Amino acid sequence: MEIEPEDIRLLRNARFRRLLEARVLGQTAQNAMLYALLILVVRDTGSSLKSTFLIVAFTLPPIILGIPAGAIADLLPRRLTLTLGYLLRGAIVTALIFYSHDLVYIYLLAAASSVVGLFFSPAEAAVVPAVVRRDQLPAANSLMVLSLILGQIAGMVVLAPLLIKLVDPRAVFVAGAGLFLAAAYVMGWMTGGFTRAEDEKPPSIGFVEAMREGFQILRTNRHAYLAIMYLTMALALSRVLVILLPQYTEDVLHIRPEDTVFVAAPAAIGAGLGLLLAPPATRFLGAWRVVAGGLVLFLLGLAALGLVIYVRDFIEAHLNLGISFVEREVGVSSVITVTMLLAAPLGFAFTLVNVASRVVMNEQAPQEAQGRVFAMQMALGDFVSLLPLLIVGVVADVVGARATLLAAAVGVTAVAGWLTFSRRFGPPDGAAPEPVPRLGTGEPG
Asked: Are 343 and 263 in contact (CB under 8 A)?
């Protein structure tokens, strides 16, 4: 696919390029740390309940402190927040080198890392529209998601497993500390290029007013409100899918749980395609339409995974896709083949929702309010995901992974329809989608 001239100029933007470089380094370190912590807890305790507590340690701080932390992040200079965030995470992962055998310290340091992320992540998301042009936001957000995926692969698939196998989990923390320090160095160069106008904050706004303004954006801008709701639902469903995937591969595909590559690989291919198509799609169709269409496709794909046996039967009866030939000649089950075909659109749809919803929020929220808008989205995502994360495994043991996936897709479809058309929640249908006034000025953002 030919790259647009705007995208070429975007990659030549030194500040944005350094933001991406720091993000890849930081995400690699963060994901390697998470993987090593999970291995440590499982290896030392052998308890799934203790592993659940580790997840809770990462999830509870955003639920409790996420929204006020986003408001505070908007009041702090972003050069301080981003650089200091990497340095603090480097200090936390360094502490894990010495306290990795104490379960209480592991939980406390995991929670501390999550708290740092409450200030860091909204500031990082809000920096994007400050360093790129408005027409480059789709491509910029697509590259930000790509850097996240690269960090996950480098940290959880390459770095952490290799160091744990060759040395021990503490080696992962040593490498992570170095990566966080490198990210802080790169970020220092990037933030040094900020202009005074980009770093200025309205002097009169206070903490309570900042929080109230963040909620006001969602109450007066329907596109921003629904974009956050749709992204929150997609994130919650993606976490449910990750939890159910090992059981799904064993019970439905009849392969070992560690062979989830049959689902993950085509999903990653679909996500890569989504990263390529999201920028031109948002330019030609509009970011809001891409968010809505992506969520619909994601829900359909998830429901199809729940009905994969019936989908397989329909394809074999009415479509000539060569599934029977693959099963007969290659030896790959027809159910596995259909699952792989369904996984690619799932990854594609999730990427569309992820990228386009951030473009909507970048476009509709004023620059100085974007930190708390993103913080509210992350707090909502963690809050909505917490209960399903705790109960979905139990439900799947009773009714099966397929039925659980189908029920989740149907339930979220009903909630999405209710939030979209109900007049009780969010701005009215006639609410203007234009950016709200900038704080303290009365002028449009």
From this structure: yes
Buried b / exposed e along 15-54 (16+ C-beta atoms within 10 A) = bbbbbbbbbbbbbbbbbbbbbbbbbbbeeeeeeeeeeebb
Other beta carbons within 10 angstroms of residue 333's beta carbon come to 18
For residue range 203-255, list pLDDT tens digits in order: 444 445 555 655 666 666 677 778 888 888 888 888 777 767 767 777 787 77
Q: What's the pLDDT tens digit per position in 87-101?
A: 999 999 999 988 878
Two tokens, residue 50: 């203790």
DSSP state of 437: B
- Residue 214 tokens read as 């963040």
End-to-end CA distance of the chain: 33
Domains recognised in the chain with CATH numbers: 1-201 (1.20.1250.20), 219-423 (1.20.1250.20)
Distance CA 299, CA 237 (A): 9
Q: How far apart are CA 189 and CA 186, in angstroms?
A: 5
pTM for the full predicted model: 0.65
d(CA 285, CA 357) in angstroms, rounded, equals 13
C-alpha span between 48 and 54 (Å, rounded): 10
